[in-house]
Amino acid sequence: MTTSHYIAGRWVEGQGSDCISVNDPALGQPFAELMAASVAQVDLAVAAAREALPTWKQVSANERAAYLRGFAEQLGQRREALINLQMRNNGKPRHEAEIDLDDAIATFAYYADLAEQLPERNREVALAAPGFTARTRLEPVGVVGLIVPWNFPLVTSAWKLAPALAAGCTVVLKPSEVTPLIEQAYGQIADTLGLPAGVLNIVNGKAETGAALSSHSGLDKLSFTGSNSVGSQVMRSASAQCRPVTLELGGKSAIVVFDDCDVDQAVEWIVAGITWNAGQMCSATSRLLVHDGIADALLPRLQQALETLRVGNPLTEEVDMGPLTSQAQWLKVASYFATAREEGLQCLAGGKALDRDGWFVSPTLYADVPVDSRLWNEEIFGPVLCARRFSTEADAITEANDSRFGLVATVCSADLERAERVADALEVGHVWINSVQAVFVETSWGGTKGSGIGRELGPWGLSGYLSVKHVTRCLG
């Protein structure tokens, strides 16, 4: 595992000072090691991307689309190996790992289609003034740095890599040091497809590597997904270069349940929103707002559902929820359990780490959580759900919007007119109505307030990697 960096079309050994230990979170034990890239190797990767850019951006849209379809096909051919690696390094249950892979495949296929439509977007512009013509030209923004998180590796990188390549950009990708292995598949696929050297570069490392990439003067754009604390550092680096950024950051999202809901159906949506990926997702609906009229029926059923979830090692057991992905995250979630006890919160389910090997915690439910509680306001990134009651629709909207984040929300109601009205009033980037968190590549992803800048997926994801040029000509 030493040749872990893909630079200028070649696999090279890391020359950095950090040794990255890759862990199986269900056992709490390492199963691989690799050396981080050095700052000099980050320089080489950016230089390779810069050198490849003039030729790559002239490659026809149809050729770029063919490469993207090749990525989709090759991911499918590596299906079982990638699913197993997700289960082993992330702790994802098999059904979640399968959905992640399908999402990545769909993303490359979708942006292959959009790439083929790019020539249609270079079009004439109607002018009111006589004697001039004008046309719009869409060009790749240039060399982009992509920094992706550990909770959805392969997926988040596909959301960035596919539109960047479709637009004609060249790329330096930095995976998370927690899950550095699965993105190696993209370098292997690039080799298989004969992607021109330097179009895709992959550098692994910890904070030093990420800082070297985010502050690099050779980038034209940076796209980052991760925590708000690191995102603010990335933004500062970008401001020094006057460089555009896309930031997909944290969330503390609400799920609003009205009293006309079927209780069993509502429980299903609530459980999915907080336990998928063991709650380690920026979109986790970790604030439950439940109407007074249904709370007494719903909360006991929700408690039972959480207590009966099968939690275990996805490689050896049939499970509903796996472990937390890292020891650091396990310690963080455990600290919030301690805070809940200090605050005197009413725990209906869970509230503890599990007494077994690995980084497991119990799915947790706290009831009647006050709005000034740390658990109500802070992103925990674990399967920890806080519930409050509301009396009116207006109260529900006010409490849902009372957050420094604005990523997603879910509305549960049999009154579809009301559900749509509430969805329109919520200050977030994506709302589900009577659904689990189904994410489609054709829709956008991103948030308001502290949840980030810009959008990924859909045509908006491609637009983030395109620069608009207008050419105006005098006819006289």
Describe the structure in brief.
The chain has helices at 39-56, 61-77, 79-90, 94-117, 155-167, 184-193, 207-214, 228-241, 263-275, 292-307, 327-343, 374-377, 393-401, 416-425, 458-463, and strands at 5-7, 10-12, 19-24, 29-35, 124-125, 132-140, 143-147, 170-174, 200-202, 221-225, 245-248, 254-257, 287-291, 346-349, 364-367, 384-390, 405-406, 408-412, 430-433, 448-449, 452-453, 466-474.
Structure in words:
- The chain has helices at residues 39-56, 61-77, 79-90, 94-117, 155-167, 184-193, 207-214, 228-241, 263-275, 292-307, 327-343, 374-377, 393-401, 416-425, 458-463; strands at 5-7, 10-12, 19-24, 29-35, 124-125, 132-140, 143-147, 170-174, 200-202, 221-225, 245-248, 254-257, 287-291, 346-349, 364-367, 384-390, 405-406, 408-412, 430-433, 448-449, 452-453, 466-474.
- The protein is of the alpha/beta class and 476 residues long.
- It has 2 domains: 5-249 and 451-474, Aldehyde Dehydrogenase, Chain A, domain 1 (3-Layer(aba) Sandwich); 254-433, Aldehyde Dehydrogenase, Chain A, domain 2, CATH 3.40.309.10.
- The strands form 6 sheets. It has a 7-stranded mixed sheet with strand order 14-15-16-13-12-18-19, sandwiched between helices. A 6-stranded mixed sheet has the order 9-8-7-10-11-21, sandwiched between helices. It has a 3-stranded antiparallel sheet with strand order 5-6-22, with no helix packed on it.
- Helix 9 (263-275) crosses helix 10.
- The longest helix has 24 residues, at 94-117.
- The protein is globular and about 75 Å long.
- The relative contact order is 0.14.
- The model has no long low-confidence stretch (mean pLDDT 96).
